[in-house]
Amino acid sequence: MTDSTLSEVEKKQQYNFNKLAKRLRHNVGDAINHFNMIEEGDKVMVCLSGGKDSYTMLDILLGLQKSAPINFSIVAVNLDQKQPGFPEDILPAYLTGIGVEHRIIEEDTYSIVTRVIEEGKTTCSLCSRLRRGILYRVAEEIGATKIALGHHRDDILSTLFLNMFYGGKLKGMPPKLVSDNGKHVVIRPLAYCKEKDIIRYADAREFPIIPCNLCGSQPNLQRQIIADMLRDWDKRFPGRLETMFTAMCNVVPSHLADPKRYDFANIKADGQPREDGDKAFDKEVFSDPARISIMDSRRPIQVEACGDA
Ligand code: SF4
Fold first, then answer.
1. Number of folded domains in the chain?
2. How far apart are the C-alpha atoms of 140 and 137, rounded to whole Å?
């Protein structure tokens, strides 16, 4: 359809979609650059569950692959865990249709999990452990140099709060890290993308979404509480989620309380003024949260964050 045959409403929808797609592409491009996620010659194994996040990740990576100044290949991998009612034709048809190299791995982890875990108990931890092992094995078999997962900014923030509220740790979910078996580099190209942008994008692109409740597992209650809290904050305090994510990119170990991260035991006053030294008696000054961006966090100390005066 050409521009002249579109109605005003369709033109507006097209304009909004283009803006959204551009923003997501920039978010992914920035995350890839800031963390050096993808390098020349990489073979990226894109883990595809059939949910909105992994479809969006694959779609945007395929777009970036065309314009990137480096060469890298993509293999989409889906693990069919044999959950009852899993629509096994959807992903192969989609992936063949868009012409991307792919593997569908069939492993009946569902039977193992339902046999081993007592009825009524949560199955997610064993299920995801099994899935992780299989995906690592596949990454080795296909010679993947990176494993890409579809976690986005809001997953990263939720994990931070889960760890703080229930785990007593200041720990989130990294955009890039070596896998726990030490053999793979795991990347999260959607690390800077907001979940609400991904929902709108997946909706507009009409990805053939596979429902995520086929295993019959109850949603994790703690995760649910955190997700509700973040959604509520986002509504009542626009800019707060952005600021919190920026804070994760702007960590000041000397202003926390972990002697393993900062050598408090051996600090000495050497008479040299320090921009990041303790201001002891000053009140904190805060910027407008809506104006703090990830890019700001890459400059030396712009924002005085944390702490009631
Ligand atoms: S929700 Fe179901 S498929 Fe997902 S990790 Fe939990 S048990 Fe496994």
1. 1
2. 5
Here the CATH number for the domain that contains residue 59 is: 3.40.50.620
Would you say 193 is a known binding-site residue?
no
- 127 annotated among ligand-binding-site residues: yes
Q: Write out the residue range of the structural domain in which residue 154 sits.
A: 10-236
Q: Is 215 annotated as a binding residue?
A: yes
> Higher model confidence: residue 56 or residue 117?
56
Mean pLDDT of the chain: 90
- pTM for the model stands at 0.89
Residue of 303 and 208 predicted with greater confidence: 208
Q: Does residue 208 lie within any of the structural domains?
A: yes
Residue whose Cα lies nearest atom 7 of ligand 1: it is 124
Report which residue type is found at 122. Answer: T
User: Averaged over 173-199, what is the pLDDT?
Assistant: 97
In a domain, 52, yes or no: yes
Distances, alpha carbon 49 to alpha carbons 10, 22, 57, 212, 290, in Å: 31, 24, 11, 9, 33
Q: What is the pLDDT of residues 293-307, one digit of tens each?
A: 665 555 433 333 333
* Mean pLDDT on 8-27: 95
More confident: 216 or 111: 111
Does residue 24 sit within a domain? yes
Question: Which tokens belong to 290?
Answer: 């809506």
Which residues on neighbouring strands pair with residue 80, listed in sequence order? 106
Residue in 125, 127, 130, 149 to alter for ligand 1 test, most ligand atoms within 8 A of Cβ: 127
CA of residue 94 to ligand 1 center, whole Å = 23
Query: Which residues, at least 6 apart from 213, have a Cβ–Cβ distance to it below 8 Å?
Result: none
154 in any annotated domain:
yes
Distance 220 CA to ligand 1 centre (A): 10
Closest CA to 241 of 198, 196, 284: 196
Cα of 262 from ligand 1 centre, angstroms: 38
For residue 295, the model assigns a pLDDT of 57
Mention every residue, 6+ apart, whose C-beta is less than 8 A from residue 210: 49, 50, 51, 86, 87, 90, 91
